[in-house]
């Protein structure tokens, strides 16, 4: 039964790939076909994942029998089902949102090819998280990378987009090389490419080799996940794509790297070594902090959101890194708590970041701009989009009663565990985690006050924004699904937490660990006493006190509300240019963290009749791209120099190249003779 | 059934106590500051009169404002009062049950701040934007200090629940090196969080020095009443937190009338003393330039980290 549904899901995706190409020239039809089938397949995907999570049975679907690389089959254990659920949930909302958005974005161009690529992209993500053979994993991984590359460069006439796409292609392929190194090493030591082979050989691989495999996997998957300092492609590539694709890339594509990392570490390399977790924790904290700090300085709304993906990958990996540390000390209950926190934040981030990217897409749809400093007052012209964007902003700032708070609360509890368990070295490594996570939360709140306050409140700062209209209903429904989920996963966190908890327990072999929650509140045991929070009760009491407050203000009778002008210090009227801009809003933090940002600014004043009445003032502020200049520039310089050396053997003569081939063949023959 | 009734009475009593005492504390600080400035100052009950008068007035709302501006007073009041209701005041029991822990308190205050800052930007006035921008800078730096300091306590108690933290202060003693460090760190941060000198000046409407007052400049009438009341509750809750964690004397460990009444007396006295200390600090220091504030908070962060290191290495 479930196999049939699985095949139906794959078939729906295949139809979504083929049919838009058939109706290539009619945008109305091919858009509906592509996103309609993607939505259907996503509903099937959610059903399959829920089934596989409730009844822990492995769905097996052998698809690629091969003598050389072993059988490749699509199977759903808990972890795969969890990622299938995440991917399908987000792609359902995105597929509902996409049709009107795509009709406008495509304009005169055909959207058929794009629709087909979109379906192929979603399908390849599903295949990546369900396949159980390293060889096919690599193929699907590559498929995912290439389709996403073509989705990014949809706007190929924009030179920035092309550059961003190229950077993405180069960096992720470097990452893929490391993933291949990890897999080939594993295969060479286990006699097969199947994940089953890897798992059974886990205990026989020598420790030194294991360390090498871990590092290769971390580099490879870390590139895709956008871990600092491998993140530089992410804030360029994600915003370049059309917004619904950005939502999928930031929401779930980078999470497939987390899937890969979890799979390799917990399945193939256990027992784990403690310093692996330490490295992950350190990189995670750095990513979280630098991600949010760079986000604060961004004014391109999509690039800002992309930096927040770097931040949230950091928060997710804090949980996972702590789980590695705890497992290496065989503290299974604490490891389960940490892994659950990480996985829960993963699905939460997919939801609220998807919502925010779709919201940014709606703004772009309605106004044609992505620059926050051009926006303003959108809450009045786009009330539904605005309210949903507010929900996403509150969730990503980890404020109760939304889902971001639930998973960050659990991450805080995991950190508290690390302070009380294990030996002192672990405690000292984890020392800075609590302040790092708190600072991340505080800065994220500052950043989203900036985004929401500047973009949606006060007066419009440009013509195109002043005339904005609410977006079509399909787009609102797509965002609405994610908005409702943001609230539901917060208020109902104790119910939804069972899913990642069960997945984590199966992965760690930690059955029989006391349950994390009762129906109403989280209860986490540390050292015998319990920490508890009930987001549902918080929601209820907040509402009750709100009613009490409404009653309080009526104690002295009902009073009227007068609409008046804002206090303007006696000038004639307030104009939009007098308001705080995003640049001005973030200036105090730019000054405080000037060591990290290394800000540059230039003021040009053109004098008028007297210096006190200047004709124009131009102000330019930028921050120094530290990673690009200090790390990547150097690597690129070395590569260019090497390429210059390699020019010596490339004379451009066919005869010479033929002789190279001949020599190579000869050497290979000698080499393989024995 | 009787136990449930008892808990309900405690909960309601707690909320009423917070609502009633908090305006008094703010006014007490004003009074003491006036004394230092050789003025007589407002009467101690002036806070109540102000609220009572504001509740009677019509509200004027900016023509540029959206629904965020109208909703903010209610969100701020709810979130702040809920945060105050989580912190035990006169008994070690959680006043309204297991709703939340200390992390929830911090993030509920964050929710209130988020909306206040949005309301500041909502009216298109550059004062509001200035206040919001500064407030978010100060608070995002203060947040790690509070969390770190509270984690030191949580490690000892093995829990982030405030009841457990206060109980463990009562049993394992509160005169420990790490506790003294975080007491100092928390006092600095409480001054920053409640917008008091040397970080911010609650008494000024001087354009360039405002932080919190700039954000709520456009509020009038009943909306202003809620905002003002919420900020006095915030002061009260942070002082209660410090009082009960570091000086848990007199807090009721059993539910009997005698213990409860002495608990109420104890918390009022302790908060009064702490409020007086804040008034003295406010009167004896000069307001810092905005960009010196991060250094002050950075100093308190160093204290909190030191305490955390001492605590997790088991040295104190």
TrEMBL record, chain B:
UniProt xrefs under InterPro entries: ComplexI_Subunit1, NADH_UbQ_OxRdtase_su1/FPO
Gene Ontology annotations for the cellular component aspect, listed alphabetically: plasma membrane
Keyword Membrane: yes
UniProt protein name: Formate hydrogenlyase
Pfam families according to UniProt: NADHdh
Transmembrane segments: 6-29, 74-96, 102-121, 141-162, 174-192, 232-251, 257-281, 293-313
Keyword list, A-Z: Lyase, Membrane, Transmembrane, Transmembrane helix
Organism: Candidatus Aquicultor primus
Membrane topology reported for the UniProt record: Multi-pass membrane protein
């Amino acid at each position: 039964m479930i196999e049939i549904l699985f095949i139906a899901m794959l078939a729906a995706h295949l139809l979504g790939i083929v049919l838009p190409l058939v109706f290539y020239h009619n945008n109305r039809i091919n858009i509906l076909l592509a996103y309609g089938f993607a939505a259907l397949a996503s509903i099937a995907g959610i059903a399959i994942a829920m089934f596989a999570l409730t009844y822990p049975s492995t769905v097996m679907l052998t698809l690629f029998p091969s003598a050389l690389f072993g059988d490749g089959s699509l199977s759903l254990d808990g972890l795969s089902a969890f990622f299938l659920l995440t991917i399908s949930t987000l792609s359902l909302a995105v597929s509902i949102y996409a049709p009107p958005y795509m009709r406008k974005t495509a304009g005169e161009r055909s959207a058929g090819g794009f629709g087909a690529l979109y379906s192929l992209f979603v399908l390849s993500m599903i295949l990546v998280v369900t396949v159980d053979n390293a060889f096919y994993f690599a193929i699907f991984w590559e498929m995912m990378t290439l389709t996403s590359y073509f989705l990014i460069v949809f706007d190929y006439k924009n030179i920035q987009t092309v550059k961003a796409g190229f950077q993405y292609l180069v960096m992720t392929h470097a990452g893929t090389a490391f993933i291949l190194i990890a897999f080939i090493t594993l295969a060479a030591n286990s006699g097969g490419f199947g994940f089953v082979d890897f798992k059974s050989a886990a205990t026989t691989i020598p420790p030194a080799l294991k360390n090498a495999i871990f590092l290769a996997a971390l580099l490879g998957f870390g590139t895709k996940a956008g871990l600092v300092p491998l993140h530089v492609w992410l804030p360029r590539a994600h915003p370049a794509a059309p917004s619904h694709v950005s939502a999928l890339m930031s929401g779930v594509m980078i999470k497939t790297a987390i899937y890969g990392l979890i799979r390799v570490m917990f399945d193939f390399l256990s027992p784990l070594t403690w310093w692996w977790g330490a490295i992950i924790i350190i990189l995670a904290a750095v990513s979280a902090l630098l991600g949010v700090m760079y986000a604060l300085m961004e004014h391109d709304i999509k690039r800002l959101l992309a930096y927040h993906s770097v931040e949230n990958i950091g928060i997710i990996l804090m949980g996972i890194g702590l789980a590695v540390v705890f497992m290496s000390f065989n503290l299974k209950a604490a490891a389960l708590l940490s892994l659950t926190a990480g996985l829960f934040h993963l699905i939460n981030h997919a939801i609220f970041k998807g919502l925010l990217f779709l919201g940014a897409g709606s703004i772009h749809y309605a106004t044609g701009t992505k620059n926050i400093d051009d926006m303003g007052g959108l809450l009045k012209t786009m009330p539904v989009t605005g309210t949903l964007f507010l929900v996403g902003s509150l969730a990503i700032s980890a404020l109760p009663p939304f889902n971001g708070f639930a998973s960050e609360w659990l991450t805080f509890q995991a950190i508290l565990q690390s302070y009380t368990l294990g030996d002192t070295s672990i405690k000292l490594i984890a020392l800075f985690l609590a302040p790092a996570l708190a600072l991340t939360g505080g800065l994220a709140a500052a950043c989203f006050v900036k985004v929401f306050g500047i973009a949606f409140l006060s007066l419009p700062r440009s013509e195109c924004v002043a005339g904005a209209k609410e977006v079509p209903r399909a787009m609102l429904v797509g965002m609405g699904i994610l908005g409702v989920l943001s609230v539901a996963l917060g208020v109902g966190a104790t119910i939804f937490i069972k899913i990642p908890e069960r997945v984590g327990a199966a992965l760690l072999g930690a059955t029989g660990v006391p349950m994390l929650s009762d129906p109403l509140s989280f209860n986490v045991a540390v050292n015998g006493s319990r920490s508890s929070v009930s987001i549902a009760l918080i929601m209820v009491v907040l509402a009750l006190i709100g009613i009490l407050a409404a009653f309080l203000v009526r104690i002295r009778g009902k009073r009227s509300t007068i609409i008046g002008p804002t206090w303007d210090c006696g000038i004639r009227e307030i104009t939009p240019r007098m308001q705080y801009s995003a640049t001005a809003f973030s200036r105090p933090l730019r000054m405080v963290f000037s060591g990290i940002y290394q800000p540059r600014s230039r003021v040009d004043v053109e004098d008028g009749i007297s210096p006190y009445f200047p004709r124009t003032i131009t102000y330019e502020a930028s921050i120094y791209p530290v990673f690009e200049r200090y790390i990547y520039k150097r690597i690129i310089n070395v590569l260019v120099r090497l390429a210059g050396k390699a020019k010596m053997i490339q004379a451009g003569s066919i005869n010479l190249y033929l002789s190279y081939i001949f020599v190579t063949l000869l050497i290979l023959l000698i080499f393989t003779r024995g | 059934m009787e136990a449930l009734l008892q808990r309900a009475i405690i909960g309601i009593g707690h909320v009423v106590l917070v609502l009633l005492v908090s305006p008094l504390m703010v006014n007490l600080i004003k009074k003491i500051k006036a004394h230092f400035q050789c003025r007589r100052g407002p009467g101690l009950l002036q806070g109540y009169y102000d609220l009572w008068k504001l509740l009677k007035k019509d509200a004027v709302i900016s023509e540029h404002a959206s629904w965020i501006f109208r909703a903010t007073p209610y969100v701020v009041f709810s979130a702040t009062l809920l945060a105050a209701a989580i912190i035990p005041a006169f008994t070690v029991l959680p006043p309204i049950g297991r709703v939340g822990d200390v992390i929830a308190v911090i993030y509920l205050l964050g929710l209130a701040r988020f909306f206040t800052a949005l309301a500041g930007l909502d009216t298109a006035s550059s004062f509001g934007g200035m206040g919001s921008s500064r407030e978010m800078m100060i608070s995002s730096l203060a947040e790690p200090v509070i969390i770190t300091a509270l984690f030191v306590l949580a490690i000892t108690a093995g829990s982030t629940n405030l009841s457990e933290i206060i109980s463990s202060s009562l049993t394992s003693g509160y005169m420990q090196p790490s506790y003294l460090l975080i007491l100092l760190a928390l006092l600095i941060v409480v001054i920053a969080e409640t917008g008091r000198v040397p970080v911010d000046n609650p008494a000024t409407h001087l354009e360039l020095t405002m932080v919190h007052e700039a954000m709520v400049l456009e509020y009038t009438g009943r909306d202003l009443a809620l905002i003002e009341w919420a900020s006095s509750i915030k002061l009260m809750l942070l002082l209660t937190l410090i009082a009960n964690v570091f000086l848990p004397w007199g807090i009721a460990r059993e539910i009997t009338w005698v213990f409860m009444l002495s608990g109420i007396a104890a918390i009022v006295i302790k908060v009064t003393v702490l409020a007086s200390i804040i008034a003295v600090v406010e009167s004896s220091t000069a307001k810092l330039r905005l960009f010196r504030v991060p250094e002050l908070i950075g100093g308190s962060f160093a204290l909190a980290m030191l305490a955390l290191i001492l605590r997790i290495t088991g040295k104190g």
